[in-house]
Amino acid sequence: MTRNKLALALAGLLFAPVAGTAFAQNAPAADQGQNTKQLQTITVTGSALPRVDTETPSPVTVISAQQIARSGFTTISDVVRSISADNSGSIPNAFTGGFAAGSSGVALRGLTVNSTLVLIDGQRAASYGLSDDGQRSFVDLNTIPIAAVERIEVLKDGASSLYGADAIAGVVNIILRPSFKGIEGTADIGNSQHGGGFTKKATFMIGGGDLEKDGHNAYVSVQYEKDNPIWTRQRGFPYNTDNLSSIGGPNPETPSNFTGSTVGSITNPATGLVQPLRGCTPNTTLVNNDPANPGSYCYQSLVNQYTQIQPSMEQGGIYGRFTVKLNDTTKAYISASYMQDKTLTVLTPEQIQNTIPVNTNNITLPVGNPSNPFAAPAPINYAFGDIPRGTNYTNHNMRLVGGVQGIIGDWNYNTTAVINHTSLDSNQFGYINYQALINSINNGSYNFANPSANSSAVRASLAPGYDKTSTSDLDSLDFNASRSLFDLPGGPAGLAVGASVRHEAQNDPTLNPNSEFEGLGNATTKGSRDVAGMYGELDLPLLESLEADVSGRFDHYSDVGNNFSPKIGLKWKPLDWVAIRGTYSKGFRAPSFAENGSSSAQGFVTKTPPASFGLLHGGDAYSTSPYAISEYTQANRSIKPEKASNFTFGVVVQPTSWLNASVDYYNIRKSNVITAPDFGSALNAYFANGGTVPGVTITPDLADPLHPAALARPALLTGEYINANSLKTTGVDVDVQGHWNFGSLKYISELQGTQIFQWKMTLPGGIVQSYVGTQGPFNLSSGAGTPRTKGSWSNTVMYGPVTVTGTLYYTSGYQETALDVGVGPGNCLALNGAGTAFLPASCHVGSFYDFDLTGSYDINEHIAVTASLMNAFDRKAPFDPANYAANNYNPTYSQSGAVGRFWNLGVKVKF
């Protein structure tokens, strides 16, 4: 088989002993053939054919175990989400207020988590029990055993031609160790400079047996990590409060916005003056003569006291694998894992004033209620500070995999069976039962004036709590085989064929049964289906310098029918050190069970009414303050799969033995995009003249108490999922790697970046919404937006027993606009307290970078000490008042800026 110098260098991407990066070896040209023979073949993500030349026509990024260790990251979530191609729609662990809280997901190309396929050893995994925003299914990265990871391969190209649905934006394939001998363990502790977040973690792995000598190998890995919470009160302004009045912004904690305080206030029905229910207590401040609410009240920052920047998390699990050599050509293995992830999310206390599911903004205490000192019903403003609110999530992931690999005649075959079950226990506490609230107000059983007098039984009757268990299942059987066919000028042609069957199911009970809990939306998902598929791949080395790869897959879904996905790729080497590659493919995404099952979802967006609406209400707080609008979307059993076409074109160069680089352009077009009705246009139409759009029903809020004749603001929007939109995104990935030897000192550098050129959504009627460089798509990305540029630059120095790595991460800023919620150029998602100016004035969220420093020192061949300083320069997260996943910053891209400087110390032993 003819292989040139570039092929050898790129094969080193997986087999070089240093960092797993693609470096050519300094060897004479005459030795290249022997070097080639020494390299084992490997199946690279995106191809079903074993190969020595690991550089396929599709761009693949490989992250080795050594690179993971030097990054300082201790979870698969952090490693994968740091990739420059991860963008809009990615789910961070810090998003504790989302539908899929307690999980983490990757979104390549900004196409949200449902368009990136996550594999473990090339096989599918069961999805998280909850759907993101009650719609998008995805694999929770927190349930993958990092201790056993050998490498992570990221295919940044469409791959439905081999893997079927969901691989539109790309594939993340986590590859676990096939074998292990010896004993290896790590122990680490870490803490934040600014308080909170103390972490402790440990891994242990033990294995024995040589597959070639003993005929078997078995190993077990165990891991554990516990992260303490970081509270907003442990950080400075603006992360520790939602009172932005000091910089001209709104203060939603005051009674004028009906969100109340723990102390509580009541309005004198005779004078209209607000007064505290009792004297102001510690952590509260007496405020007099609020223009919108004359009188006095006790101001308290609920965000400061009760919310978190980082939730409390506890992760752990065990993974084991046993491999046996049956004969000279056949081996079999079985692996099993149990991973558990616990997340405790804490929110601000529940309040009397809510718009969903029952509007209680204008609730009053009747005459005779012990907390009402007046002779007439009195409006009350109150938050239940004596009743903690939040959710305990415990996710159990059980996975059993068995496989046989061997050779029969000229065929290499591989068959794999997977049984994967997840069970997510959600324990909600502190949500107020609407009927119990009304009863307590009418019979006076709850003491608003003196909460300390309330018994635990009274509190329990108001907030009885709710437990549910959400499950998902994936059972699959996959068979594939490959062989050489005939010789071509560039080498032997290769053929791979395969077939698979699988069963998928999800059952997520209702989030809010009978809509009984105030301040809580709703979501329920239930569905199952069977999938059968056949696929094939043909690799044709037409010339020594030209390779063609053709693949295709046919799938049958029991719920949405048939689909065929083809792909063609070309790789041309005009020079020994240059490769030009390109692919064109078709892909699809099958509807999730939330989109076409027995499902529905109710989410919320925070909206500030436009200035024109405020004028109708005299500029009062009702019409100028941000508030939550409910969006209720129902499943559509007639929904069709999303379709996509994907084009890539790139150049790979290896001009010297110590430098290689790649530049790849991507172009993805999606049609039949499944979406909720155009809620943004519906809001615009409603605010303009009380109108709406087809497919959307709007339920208005209660009337403005100060201007009851004016148009009420919208409270609830309802519609079905539809195949309505199309989208296009284009951009370029750059990867430059180099290594230099200076005697006993080695230096490795890698620059990785992604630049998005466009991200456009086309709506029915030809309306085009452009999101790149803005905070849109706001709903799809949890307010994270679509930054144009994301990248990292890693530099490693190795000198004797010392290894030091510094990595700089960068994410560009974006405009604080989002067309999908009706806020485009000339407007801004966040406004000042009066609703008359942008907040910030530039309507722009700044860029963010942070620098991580890690190091290790080998005391001897068995023991090493490790250390890291994350966000070493203590960079602060840019101010983002419109993001609703966190308080005044964007956790998707700048969570480390809210955490601040963080240190870790550890030890690693190996025998």
Entry keywords:
22-stranded antiparallel β-barrel, mainly beta, Maltoporin, Chain A, five-stranded mixed beta sheet, disordered N terminus, 911 residues, single chain, 13 helices
Structure description:
Residues 1-24 form the signal peptide. Residues 55-171 form the TonB-dependent receptor plug domain. The protein is mainly β and 911 residues long. It folds into two domains: 5-229 and 311-348 and 390-430 and 465-599 and 635-676 and 721-910, Maltoporin, Chain A, CATH 2.40.170; 231-303 and 350-383 and 433-464, no CATH class. Helix content is 10%, strand content 46%. The strands form seven sheets. It has a 22-stranded antiparallel barrel. The radius of gyration is 29 Å and the shape is globular.
Brief characterization of the structure:
The chain is built from 13 helices and 44 strands. Strand 9 and strand 10 form a beta hairpin.
Average predicted local confidence, pLDDT: 89
CATH topology of the largest domain: Maltoporin, Chain A
What's the architecture of the largest domain in CATH terms? Beta Barrel
Q: Count of helical segments?
A: 13
* N-end to C-end Cα span: 39 Å
**Contiguous uncertain segments of 5+ residues:** 1-39, 256-261
Assign the CATH superfamily of the largest domain. Answer: TonB-dependent receptor, beta-barrel domain
Basic shape: globular
Number of domains: 2
State the helical fraction.
under 10%
Largest sheet: 22 strands, antiparallel, barrel
How many distinct beta strands?
Answer: 44
**Assembly status:** single chain
The CATH class designation of the largest domain is Mainly Beta
Strand proportion, as a percent range, falls in: over 45%
What class, by secondary structure content?
mainly beta
User: What is the alpha-carbon Rg in Å?
Assistant: 29 Å
